[in-house]
């Protein structure tokens, strides 16, 4: 029996029209790429980052669908203020992407309490505070929708790392924080299922951001290695070209991922395509593990 050819898609397989997303660490890098994809699918986005200038640039690019609030997520009251600002600006909160983070590496015998705690604070404590602050509104909205006979799916996407799943030498703090967010993901998937919330993690391998920019470790090079400023401290970032080359060689795809590719995996968990997926950890590493 002959079949007529399938008609091409006239529109994307989903829309996020009417949805509001909160994306942390969205001034640049993966967070900015995630915000772009969400807006392109019709969502409104609250941008959050510690860097005011980067936020202003991203918000200007995204236009009327974006608002922003600059601040340090590790300050105890800022996550609550961020959630309140999102609800005040858009009247709802349907998608939360806990993306903000950075690396501050050292082998364990040289790692200070400050370093270790800083990694826990940004990668685990800050997302916990955001989700706790959002919980009342999410629960009330779900109960109201259930009374009206409606099921509205909401999404939480926590960003983790291969370091939190397989471990990477020199990352006791970072790996512990990223493992911790995976535990929070699995607990909240069970707690919030009754409220129609999918809670998942996306774990990245090496993605082409400023955190892994190539640095020259030649001791005769007078140029200081790149740093980022966090809480008044200059934190070294970047990776040696030798390490980057080794990572590419170890990756089955033979390259480092782009921020757009990273954001695509996050978008899946923000979309209706993942409405029956919860409590999962999706590794986005080009096949490189361990």
Describe the fold and architecture.
By secondary structure, this protein is an alpha/beta fold. The chain has helices at about 30-40, 50-60, 80-90, 115-145, 170-190, 240-250, 260-270; strands spanning about 20-25, 45-50, 65-70, 95-100, 155-160, 195-205, 215, 225-230, 235, 240, 280-285. The protein has one domain (about 20-205, about 255-285): NAD(P)-binding Rossmann-like Domain (Rossmann fold), CATH 3.40.50. It has 7 helices and 11 strands. The strands form 3 sheets. A 7-stranded parallel β-sheet has the order 3-2-1-4-5-6-11, sandwiched between helices. The protein has a two-stranded parallel sheet with strand order 7-10. Strand 8 and strand 9 (about 235) form a beta hairpin. Helix 3 packs parallel to helix 4 (about 115-145) and helix 4 packs parallel to helix 5. It is globular, with a radius of gyration of 20 Å.
Map the helices and strands.
Layout: E1 20-24, H1 29-40, E2 44-49, H2 52-62, E3 66-70, H3 78-90, E4 95-98, H4 113-147, E5 154-161, H5 172-191, E6 197-204, E7 214-215, E8 227-230, E9 233-236, E10 239-240, H6 241-250, H7 259-270, E11 281-284
Parallel strand pairs: 1-2, 1-4, 2-3, 4-5, 5-6, 6-11, 7-10
Antiparallel strand pairs: 8-9
Helix pairs in contact: 1-7, 3-4, 4-5
